[in-house]
Amino acid sequence: MATIKVLIPMSDYGHDPTETAVPYAAFKKAGFEVHFATENGKTPECDRKMWQGMTQKLLGATQSAVSAYKTMASTPEFTTPLNWSSPTFTLEPYNLIFLPGGHEKSVRQLIDSPDIHKHLASYFPSTLKPSAKTVAAVCHGVMVLSETKGEDGKSVIHDCVTTALPARFEQVAFWGTRAFLGDYYKTYGVGSDDVEASVRQVLDDPVKQYKNSLGMSPFVVQDEKYNYISARFPADAKLLAEKTIALVSSSSG
What Pfam families would the database entry show (predicted)? Predict the structure, then answer.
């Protein structure tokens, strides 16, 4: 069987270490070939608050996730990512596009990127089943897709079943830390829409299509029409990786 190729687009800074490193480790263990891409080929770095210092101990990644992140960060594919703004860059060779989340404001570089939107607008329709192509996203990574518009002007996930970071989780994190972290947990600042609201508003029928869970058990949503799979936050990362590997492997034959 041909090697399964994965691309993880990242902002230069700010992604969640657990949502990036735990799936990366699982993809590598499964034998997948993994590449990263940043806007200009700069080595990315995940949100420091989530993997070092007091904020890591109180709010951030577990020690095992921190260890996985440090291992990932030392690999050639991570330190020498592709350049997504290059005229020769394309998503076409990849079986899987994986979009990690993170709430640090710098992740807007990926969420708002016209180049990434252009590439995903072309790629996402090719995940229509049966297909050998898959997209997976977690937390704010789902917003990269909700903000990507197709030729019809609709989000590429307008007719998909999806989840994302629950508004309740985002609000609890924001209000619970505002006294000492300010608006750190609001990616677009105070008064901006929650991730859940941003995603729900692009869906054709959010009541039926948006799936939510406020439980702490891992929760992953898989669409039936497209090879598209989504999750909420770091605690879902391991299950998301496992289900994504199964979906990609079965779809790639």
Answer: ThiJ_like
Count of residues in the chain: 253
Confidence class for position 164, pLDDT limits 50, 70, 90: very high
DSSP code string of 188-207:
T-TTPPPHHHHHHTTSSSHH
Spell out the domains of the chain, with CATH numbers in brackets.
5-251 (3.40.50.880)
Instruction: Kindly give the residue spans of alpha helices, DSSP state H, lying in the chain.
Output: 17-29, 48-51, 53-59, 63-73, 76-79, 108-111, 114-123, 141-146, 167-181, 195-200, 206-209, 237-251
Residues 6+ positions from 114 with CB-CB distance below 8 Å? none
CB 102 within 8 A of CB 15: yes
Task: State how far the Cα of 79 lies from the Cα of 73, in Å rounded to an integer.
Answer: 7
Query: What pairs with residue 134 in β-bridges?
Result: 96
Q: What is the arithmetic mean of pLDDT over 103-117?
A: 97
How would you write 121-165 as a 3-class SS string? HHHHHHHECCCCCEEEEECCHHHHHHCCECCCCCECCCCCCECCC
Rg of the chain over Cα atoms, rounded to whole angstroms, equals 17
Q: Which two tokens mark 216? A: 């702490």
Q: Beta strand pairing status for 5-9 and 220-222?
A: unpaired
Mention every residue, 6+ apart, whose C-beta is less than 8 A from residue 13.
44, 45, 46, 47, 104, 106
Cβ atoms 145, 98 nearer than 8 A: no
Residue 216 pLDDT greater than 80, yes or no? yes
Is the pTM value of this prediction over 0.90?
A: yes
For residue 246, what are the contacts with CB-CB under 8 A and spacing of at least 6? none
C-alpha 39/C-alpha 139 separation (Å) is 20
